[in-house]
Amino acid sequence: MDRQTDRYIDRQSDRQTVFHIQANLEDELVQEALKTGVDLRQYSKQVEAELQRIEQASIKDYIKESQNIASLHNQITACDSILERMEEMLSGFQSDLSSISSEIQTLQQQSVSMNIRLKNRQAVRSQLSQLVDELVVPSTMISPVTEQEFLEQLHELNNKINFAKELSFRETLACSDIQDIVDRLKIKAVSKIREFILQKIYSFRKPMTNYQIPQNTLLKYRFFYQFLLANERTVAKEIRDEYVDTMSKIYFSYFKSYSSRLLKVQVRNVLGIIYLPISEYIMTTLISCVCVCVQFPYETLFRSQHYALLDNGCREFLFLSDFFMVAGNSALDLFNSVMGKTLSMFLKNMSAYVSDCYDSIAVFLCIHIILRFKAITAKRNIPALDKYWEAVLEMLWPRFELILEMNIQSIRNTDPQKLGVLDTRPHYITRRYAEFSSAIVSINQTFPNERTNALLGQLQIEVENFVLKMAAEFPSRKDQLIFLINNYDMMLGVLMERAADDSKEVEGFQQLLLARTQVNRTQEFWEINHNRMITFVKESEALMEKGQLDKLKNGEVRITQLVRGFSSSWKQSVEALSQDVMRSFTNFKNGTSIIQGALTQLIQYYHGFHKILSQPTFRSLAVRSELINLHHLMVEVKKHKPNF
């Protein structure tokens, strides 16, 4: 066993030796020596000798520096002593700092605790201060009502009352200490407010030289009523009832007096045209009035009356809503309690007027006044008078339609033979219709109404029929046309002054006037030429179209008479036409148009006459040399052009 161990150790030693040999062989110096062929043993001895030499030199250097080394040793020893003392000092400091940190932490905890206590005390103090302030009642809480301080103190008292109620719900014991004082102050304040407001309301009953606005004196005391409503509803109701009763009487008295004064300046009308039998020769187409004094018509007074109602009604509704703090149906009911008697009086007076009124324009103006005022209240968002407006309109519309229907029926039943002497000038009935219709049309443009338009359409049809029946009374066709043109032109002129150019009435009479004017132009021309030349031209043109113009080649005598007759009489005929037109037509513009149309037709037919006589059938006629030169005729005709 020991042998094996020895052999094992030897093998390990040999392996290490081989390892060291391999490591030394890898050394650069050894490899260089091997390359140069140096003997390693000799080289090892040289190295060993060199090491010994160096060791001896190092010893000598150490001996030489022994004193310095000793001094350095002493210094190091002294530094160690100093560092040891510093370590002990720092250890003491560390111990002191640990103690201070502990004290600081303790102080911090105490500070946090004190801060929390401070906040809690401040919160409690704030609530207690508010509670105390709300509970404390100054000895000078209620001053005279007329002073400005009263309103401020009343606000403060109201806050204390509300606060006391809130505390009573929480069962706060401090509330019982001031409840009796607050109740007594409340009773005192209610008594003063009641007396003050009632005095203000009673002062409204005093006569006023000029109508003033009493609500303004109450509106600045709006909080008084609010205080009463919150704390003493019985007194609040008493004040509201007293105000309603007082203002109802004031408005009724004011408007009754105002209406009676308006009636004194109303026109006292004598109906120049009334609804009487036709046999009495009084035309009832329109209900117009002849005034016997220069005063105001009913519609003007109606507007003044209802404008005052509009102004006062809107202001009263706003005051009631604001002062008495009502809205919706409650505000409307309160307004009706104040203004109900006045509105009923208005409706009663209106009913009395409408039942005996035949002035359709006045009624129609009243309707549009109401429509305008209704739009104003809607724009102001005040519904207080809406029912009244509707009641008035329900009263006025049927009456207006009835009067129009009576006018329509009267026109329809008119007998032209009972209207006196015939005249080609515009008839007074058509003039009144034109003025009436233009007034209604111009008013109706603001708030168009289809029923009104339909009735005006029926009236226009009856007037047109009436004009035709009147024209039929004239024996000559010429007078009939002149009468129609004069009446159509007059009605159109009056309508165009007020109605829009595109209105149905204007367009209708424009068409009628144009048609009659064109017919009259031909009629006038025929009278100039006695219908002979125009007949010849028409016959010849018809035969020319068929190629049978030779049928007239034996009409030399007829043609000669036409040529010479025209040449000798056309100037006199044109002059006579001009004079006749000036006498016949009230509107010279229409006369000018008719003359120009007739002269134009004259030139056209004479040009056609020239053209016919230039055909081969008539070229050999000697009378062709007597034809008037067409250009010369045009120049001469221009001389006769009327300048009205």
UniProtKB/TrEMBL annotation:
Keywords: Golgi apparatus, Protein transport, Transport. Its main location: Golgi. GO terms for molecular function: syntaxin binding. Residues 295-518 form the Vps52 C-terminal domain. This is Vacuolar protein sorting-associated protein 52 homolog. It is found in: Golgi apparatus, trans-Golgi network. InterPro entries: Vps52 (IPR007258), Vps52_C (IPR048361), Vps52_CC (IPR048319). One of its GO terms (biological process) is endocytic recycling. GO terms for cellular component: cytosol; GARP complex. It comes from Astyanax mexicanus. Residues 61-228 form the Vps52 coiled-coil domain. Belongs to the VPS52 family.
